[in-house]
Amino acid sequence: MAREIGVSAEGLRNWVMQDTIDRGQGAPGELTSAEREELRRLRRQNREQAETIEVLRKAAVFFAKESDR
Asked: Could you name the domain of life of the organism this protein comes from (predicted)?
């Protein structure tokens, strides 16, 4: 079947497995596509917030040194 639609057998197997999970028939703990997307979004947001915090920390240190002069 995979050859007929032009994908690898492994790719087709992954699609079928993910569809099974998305329909609520996967093993406990397996993430649906929506949950995977949310996890990616939250990790990206976490990374951006960590970068913002680092910039603010450096700015606070800079301004603290400037105010001591």
From this structure: Bacteria
- Which two tokens mark 6? 């032009």
Angle ∠(30,14,40) on CA atoms, nearest 5:
55
Phi-psi region of 32 (alpha: psi -120 to 50; beta: other; left: phi over 0): beta
What is the pTM assigned to this prediction?
Answer: 0.72
Tell me the angle at which helices 9-22 and 33-67 cross, rounded to the nearest 10 degrees.
Answer: 90
How far apart are alpha carbons 1 and 21 in whole angstroms? 21
E strands in the chain:
none
What is d(CA 47, CA 60) in angstroms, rounded to the nearest whole number? 20
